[in-house]
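Sanity check

After download, print the first record. It should look like this:
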Amino acid sequence: MRLKLLAAALAASISAPAYATDIEVTHWWTSGGEAAAVKVFADAFDATGNKWVDGAIAGGGGTARPVIISRIIGGEPMGATMLNHGRQAEELVEAGLMLDLTEIATKEGWRDIVHPVSLLDSCTVDGKIYCVPVNIHSWQWLWLSHKAYKDAGVDVPKNWDEFVAAAPALEKAGIVPLAMGQQAWQTNGAFSVLTVGLGGQDLWTKINVDKDAAAAAGPEMARVFEAYGNARNLSKGSTVSDWNQATNMVITGKAGGQIMGDWAQGEFQVAGQVAGVDYTCLPGLGIQEIISTGGDAFYFPKTDDAEKTKAQLEMASMMLSKEVQVAFNLKKGSLPVRGDVDLAAANDCMKKGLAILASGKILPDGNQVLSADTQGQLEDLFVEFWNDTKITPEAAQANFAKIIGDAD
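Expected structure tokens:
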């Protein structure tokens, strides 16, 4: 009997998966849609024989990034961490704290499969690649609740001007026209969307890429600041904090719309809503059909543990595999970074994004062209403006022009 039990235990130990390495992964994906997307990564990584140890940090990127950076600098790094495409990890890379992925990127031909290639360029410092881009997220979307407009007795708007015109009807029906969470990155992002939608790509480029203070102080931007002031008025009654709480106001018909990136789509999906039936998405506010090509990337802090390094490289490879790219991005609401995958299952809003991407009507994300310091100054400016109605659009624009003039 004892021999039979020993044989059974031995057989079980041979057949059961033995995890090679645990990798703690930090990120700030905590909403319902985001959690579903994270599970795709976690399951795929666990299937390699390693173990994904989830290190989610609630509160969004503004809360998570300082924690992530402090741990890496302080000598307590995680195995992998999400950051946005762009310059957020610049100083960590320059300090020699991040794993060089150039060898695996070259072996797997990342430069040939990542589209647009500017995403990989954002991972590159001095010719070496330090991160793996996993999706394309664009900020340039206005999400509209069909229920809200039906309850208010007006048609669903087709552009920003119609959205503003319909606001009084929504307010009369007790519906908040514009849902907005009370976090700096949200108000900063909404301003950028208005800049592109109302001012156009050339104006956005002059300010964010060329750092043109004269353009920032000019009449075209005055129109954007006036609209931003109107948006502030339309959000009265939106007292939620997190972005997904604001999205839920749209889902439930308590708000007419929300300016938010395409990650909001994951929340509509979890709620069982159908694009074109329950909600409408307007890229570029229905005016300028342009999308930014920002998004999320994963970095891997250096380690002296060879087995952990091997697991880190396996994770990087897994994240760019065709199957995982499709499954992850369908859950996340974002677009895949691979241009060679089948997205037949994409909904109407994702198809709109894919069509715009294919047309080449794209621009970089603010994180790719502005330093973390400049972004922080802009967030401070916009959250103060949003929360203090005594600050006029003209005063805010003057401070904005100074920040852009001093930007690096």
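If your output differs, re-run the checksum step. Summary of this record's structure: Residues 1-17 have pLDDT under 50 and may be disordered.
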